[in-house]
């Protein structure tokens, strides 16, 4: 790391000197008063062959090192120390920063094409931008990167509580989708706990009739939370269970039905047919895809397949308390344009947080 920084420092100090000289020459001939009257002049930063060679050397060293965007933003922004009146940022000045950003994104598990597009967007935002002397360039660069990432993560907001309360014909129906072990059942329990704390009544449909012990697992949670489970036997038709649960909710005035489901491979045709039938019969208001936040590219592929076959309205990303780097969430939001409602932050009922984009930014760019 230190070798890398030495190279960067050398490169930036050469750059600084050059700018300083240029500005000093200008300031000898132009007084402060005339500067005020004159239209602003631009100092365009040119790159010498020497600098280009250094850049290559920096890149070679960087290839072997772990990266930290936080440090790199700050290093690249030393551009600022050049005391020009106004500097126009050119594409070539951004090469190093963008390269670093892309690697940081990839290391945070952002999918390849998404990270390329993010970098392109940031290049567009920054190229040609004029920087005034004394401007906080560290802050400016970070803000541009933040803004670009935020705009790429924008999705339509779903206010779940309001939707549940506004639904005229009770119950509100939520179908939980996603691969085995992703955390569907646990998330169902957490979300129920949350809704119960808001005074809503919940009932469950044990529509994972495939995996051994799934009904018992549901019943254990149900007992702790005081929730009724509608169940059939293993191997039964999951859509029929959902149908019964909805009927039970209608007759008892229960606000929300949560439908569990089995998660095998997304390529499993029978599973997809089973889920399509649950959708036909159960008419869910919300199809919630539960995925593990750290699975990266695989999560995106699975979710796209589920979306094609079943349709997804929103996501819950679980296990962010483990090694989730956050990049998966960026790719998911960018590629699928569907909101992430919650993130799972542990195994307890309370460990469900509303998703905020800041949460990802903190992890990805510091
Ligand atoms: N650390 C952590 N573990 C979780 C989280 N959500 C679920 N789990 C665990 O993941 C495992 C599988 O969860 P489960 O709900 O059975 O997944 P399902 O097969 O999709 O229904 C269980 O051991 C859960 O306790 C989370 O947010 N954080
Ligand atoms: Mg389950």
Characterize the largest beta sheet: strand count, sense, and whether it forms a barrel. Answer: 8 strands, mixed
Which molecules other than protein and nucleic acid are bound? guanosine-5'-diphosphate, magnesium ion
Shape-level CATH architecture of the largest domain: 3-Layer(aba) Sandwich
Run of helices and strands = HHEHHEHHEHHEHEHEHEHEHEHEEH
Total beta-strand segments: 11
Number of helices: 15
In helices, the fraction of residues equals 40-55%
Low-confidence stretches: 1-9, 11-16, 18-45, 60-68
Provide an overview of this structure:
This protein is of the alpha/beta class and 366 residues long. It folds into 2 domains: 2-152, no CATH class; 160-365, P-loop containing nucleotide triphosphate hydrolases (Rossmann fold, 3-Layer(aba) Sandwich). It is built from 15 helices and 11 strands. The strands form 2 sheets. It has an 8-stranded mixed β-sheet, with helices on both faces. A 3-stranded mixed β-sheet has the order 1-2-3, covered by helices on one side. β5 (202-205), α10 and β6 (228-230) form a beta-alpha-beta unit. α4 packs antiparallel against α5 and α7 crosses α15 (357-365). It is elongated and about 75 Å long. It starts with a helix and ends with a helix. The structure holds guanosine-5'-diphosphate and magnesium ion. Guanosine-5'-diphosphate (GDP) binds at residues 178, 180-186, 263, 290, 318-319, 321-322, 344-347, 351.
């Amino acid at each position: 790391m230190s070798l890398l920084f030495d190279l960067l420092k050398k490169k930036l100090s050469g750059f600084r000197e050059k700018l300083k000289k240029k500005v000093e020459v200008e300031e000898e001939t132009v007084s402060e008063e005339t500067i005020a009257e004159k239209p602003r002049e631009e100092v365009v930063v040119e790159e010498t062959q020497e600098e280009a060679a250094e850049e290559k050397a920096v890149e070679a060293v960087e290839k072997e090192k772990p990266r930290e965007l936080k440090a790199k933003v700050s290093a690249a922004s030393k551009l600022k120390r050049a005391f020009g009146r106004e500097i126009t940022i050119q594409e070539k000045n951004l090469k190093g920063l963008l390269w670093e950003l892309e690697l940081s994104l990839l290391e945070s598990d952002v999918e390849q094409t998404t990270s390329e597009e993010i970098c392109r967007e940031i290049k567009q935002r920054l190229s040609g931008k004029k920087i005034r002397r004394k401007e906080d360039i560290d802050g400016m660069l970070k803000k541009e990167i933040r803004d670009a990432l935020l705009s790429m993560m924008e999705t339509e907001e779903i206010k779940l509580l309001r939707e549940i309360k506004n639904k005229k014909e009770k119950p509100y129906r939520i179908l939980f989708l996603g691969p085995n072990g992703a955390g569907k059942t646990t998330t169902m329990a957490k979300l129920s706990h949350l809704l119960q704390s808001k005074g809503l009544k919940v009932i469950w449909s044990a529509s994972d009739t495939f995996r051994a012990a799934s009904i018992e697992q549901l019943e254990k949670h149900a007992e702790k939370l005081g929730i009724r489970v509608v169940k059939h036997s293993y191997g039964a038709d999951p859509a029929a269970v959902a149908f019964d649960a909805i009927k039970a909710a209608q007759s008892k005035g229960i606000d929300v039905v949560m439908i569990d489901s089995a998660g095998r491979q997304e390529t499993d045709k029978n599973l997809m047919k089973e889920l399509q039938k649950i959708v036909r019969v159960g008419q869910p208001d919300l199809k919630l895809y539960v995925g593990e936040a750290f699975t990266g590219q695989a999560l995106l592929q699975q979710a796209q397949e589920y979306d094609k076959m079943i349709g997804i309205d929103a996501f819950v990303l679980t296990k962010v308390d483990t090694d989730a780097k956050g990049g998966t969430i960026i790719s998911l939001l960018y590629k699928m344009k569907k909101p992430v409602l919650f993130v799972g932050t542990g195994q307890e009922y309370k460990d469900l947080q509303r998703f905020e984009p800041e949460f990802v930014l903190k992890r990805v760019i510091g």
